[in-house]
Amino acid sequence: MHIQLFHSGNSNLNMHFLLSARHFSRFRRALSIKTLNNGPLLNLGPKTLISINNRLNFSGYRSLMTSAPPAPHLLDVTTSSFETEVIEQSVLRPVLVDFWAAWCGPCQILMPLLARLAEEYGGTFRLAKLNTDTEHAIASRYRVRSLPTVKAFRNREVVDEFMGVQPERSIRAFIDRHIPRASDQAIDEALATKARGENDKAVEQLRAAMAEDPANDRVKQHLASLLFEQNQVDEGEAVLNKLSREARSRPEIQTLFARLEFLRLAHNAPPTAELKGRIERDPSDMEARLHLGARYILAEQYEAGLDQLLEITRRDRAFGNDAGRRTILSVFNLLSDKSDLVKRYRALLSTALN
After folding, report:
1. Where in the chain is the domain with CATH 1.25.40.10?
2. Is pLDDT above 80 for 351?
3. Mind telling me the catalytic residues?
4. Three-state DSSP string of 314-353
5. In the 8-state DSSP scheme, what is residue 125?
6. Is 131 helix (H, G, I), strand (E, B) or coil?
């Protein structure tokens, strides 16, 4: 149940309470009234607002002085409506689902901020609230382990998430990376150009898009990836370094940074056949193993590459300041979608270290 108290002389001074039915009687007693004659809305003076704020002391609850949560882009969802209101709607626009509970104090802090942003963004994304106390099945399906948790849905899938109360700046960055922008069309055009085998033209399209919209991290991500494919390592690295701080923490960007590391290792390395010959002549040639491992990784021969790096770890932890172990961890970042392989080599790495 949502209760709004507001001062009739100042529409911006409002207090919101999200209460379960069992706490509603405590709410009425705190106000010393028997009924709410005007439904969930009650006109009060500023001194009364402050008094109520001081008198209400629900464990885990918090009153919030915020602007009223906007209705047009905010809705409650349940297990029965989740497929229609979230999954299907995510094909049309991003849908942010706030997993919350009435007993969760931080949830009461986050929701008004999300609601205000939903109103400010004017419907470019939908904001849905799901009460985990009553909708256990959905919370379990999406592995919600802490509250509040916000998950972004796009094209019927979870594409991003964050947990806990975040600064407004971080939440805006979270939203912005899923809101379609005019420059996103250039990405689609560039990918289509690449599919036709015109890689140089695709790079030019993405360079132009980045110049037109320097804040679009998605353009930078695709441009850096394509530059790496063409072995234009210096420019690709420069593009990555222009990414926002928030973007750099995303798994797909971490993968690009890991790829950059292997491109750097292999850039001035001898050919594969020469590296193999060096290792045959001298199995303790750690530099040759490191470069060969990098070449294997770039060729997507991951097991062969990891085997070389593991051998470095077993033979010489001092080489390159523990280069074998550190480079293996970079491979794990690169292989985020190949969990079985990562799991197997984590165990092998643990054995090598012990």
Report:
1. 184-249
2. yes
3. 104, 107
4. HHCCCCCCCHHHHHHHHHHHHCCCCHHHHHHHHHHHHHHH
5. S
6. strand
Separation of alpha carbons 48 and 54, rounded Å: 10
Long-range contact set of residues 135-144: C-beta below 8 Å, sequence gap at least 24: 135/77, 135/78, 135/79, 135/82, 137/79, 138/79, 138/82, 139/99, 142/99, 144/99
The pTM of this model reads 0.59
52 or 218: which leads in pLDDT: 218
Query: Could you say which of 3.40.50.150, 3.40.50.300, 3.40.30.10, 3.30.460.10 is the CATH number of the domain covering 74-176?
Result: 3.40.30.10
Q: What is the CATH number of domain 184-249?
A: 1.25.40.10
2-7 vs 10-18, strand pairing mode: antiparallel
Ranges of H-type helices in the chain: 21-31, 46-55, 79-82, 105-120, 136-141, 168-176, 184-195, 199-212, 217-229, 233-240, 245-248, 251-267, 272-281, 286-298, 302-315, 323-334, 339-353
What confidence tens digit (pLDDT) does each residue in 291-347 have? 999 999 999 999 999 999 999 999 999 999 999 999 999 999 888 767 789 999 999
The CATH classification number of 266-353 equals: 1.25.40
In sequence order, the 6+-apart residues with CB closer than 8 A to the CB of 228 are 236, 256, 259, 260, 263
